[in-house]
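User: Sorry, folds how?
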Amino acid sequence: MPIRRLPEHLVNRIAAGEVVERPASALKELVENAVDAGATRIAVRLASGGIDRVEVIDDGCGMSAGEMALALERHATSKLPDDDIEGVETLGFRGEALPSIASVARLIVESRVRGEEGWSRIVDNGELVEEGPAALPPGTRVVVDSLFAKVPARRKFLRTPRSEYAAAADAIRRLAMARPDIGFTLEHDGRRNISVQPGETRAERVAALTDRQLTENSVAVDYERGTAKLEGVASLPTFNRGVADHQYLFVNGRPVKDRLLIGAVRGAYQDLLARDRHPVLALFLTVPPGEVDVNVHPAKTEVRFREPGNIRGLIVGGLRHALDEAGFRSVQRPSAGALGNWQTEPVGAQPGAAPTAYPQSYQQNNQQRAAFFTPPPGSDQASVWDQAPDYQPAPEGRAEAAEAPVPDAADHPLGIARGQVAETYIVAEAEDGLVIVDQHAAHERLVLERMNRAMAEGGVASQGLLVPEVVELDESACDALEERIGELTELGLELERFGPKAMLVRATPAMLGAGHVKGLITDLADEIAAYDQHLSLKEKLDHVAATMACHGSVRAGRVLNVAEMNALLREMEVTPHSGQCNHGRPTWVKLGHGDIEKLFGRK
């Protein structure tokens, strides 16, 4: 077969396969063109997730009729005036987007330069069908209709409109974060879902597009090393998510998805977060153009650094420095004034009331703690001392009177509970040593195994909420949950859609008890969003059930009495896989008698 030059329309379709993978890809290219044109406001309208229609309107510099015709030719661009591709500072530079899109869709381009007449050009799947004058304000309007309508082999691989919309919204969020000086609006099927105004600060823009609570639960990143600079916003370790879908990385203002950068973020948080939790952040890396190659992938989402080790060190060091500066900060709690509304100084006995008899040790501790927590004279700081109730000693290990004979440790492999340390670890005495149990990790595994058994027997029993709770989420997260309502009902969780950005929780699995409903639904949405839409939720039951079990388990920091501790140990002894929690960490460790004797030099 002889070698031949391919026709222009076929070349454009091949190029479209690299540049235009889905509606979000076309949208990204069009918005990047609007940003490079100097726009201050960009409006985006989508129909059916962008499959049927993508419309981008900007107030940028516009194009003349001659420039518009040239823009629809391959490798024609205004962004490389001196042929220096290594020094490119614009988002686009390849000159492939418009002709590639025009070869696989019906493309309408209308543009007007200030002080001149507008012009319109319509190209249908690579063929020019109409051009002429157009009436519009200064700027450009681009419409992409029926993407891949005449390329069925490509169109059948598109996802559902909801999935395509989620990808398009993510692309807009990333571009809007990169340019807080530009206003962005996104409408889908007539409903406005994103609206940010020009002139916002970077922190305000990031919080508006991720989570409003991020403003109070984040640290500012500002770090330099050599010619590279790292800026942005990073969440405190206690403000995290179940998946890494809220991590936004930018290089010289360009949104990227780079393994080196993602790995550096993971390294910075590695000993601050569990392996299955991820921070929320937006990092903006600025390096000299000659130190980074942006011409690695046609979609321009990948970059290559000249000194990758230095860049990784910059990100890890910058994040560590910012988190260290935060000190003991954690997720924001209610203000001291709000706490003062229900926490007051100890008060004396009411007139005519009989004095309460307290043990001497309790009175001494009371006086010492009151002196420690009393604010300095003249201070308006709210107190954190509770009013002293009638004395009721908290249950503590052996200090609690035994209502039944203490079981024999020889009958139980995990021993008999003797106390609790740091309100997190159960200390038990076994026949052959000392057992220490992580109460949260252990109970989490027990709840998961109960859910698995209930599912095998026909479904998990649910407990209706006295007052249904409304949980606000992103629209894409609500869509993902709504598609799985039937399968979640089998897990004991009853949900209903409550508007475009909220879910109504009517019942939760009975075995989870009274938990944090909002946290449970948020993490479940993250888990489901990470799965392939074509997989049944039951095929990922372990992950979803583990998320639910985590929210229904005994938390670290909860005081348990002896009976509760022994009940937990007994259930662990008869439950499969109770030796490790749902995340792979051990639930208990044993220190044998021989090991204890070695510690004290007896052996």
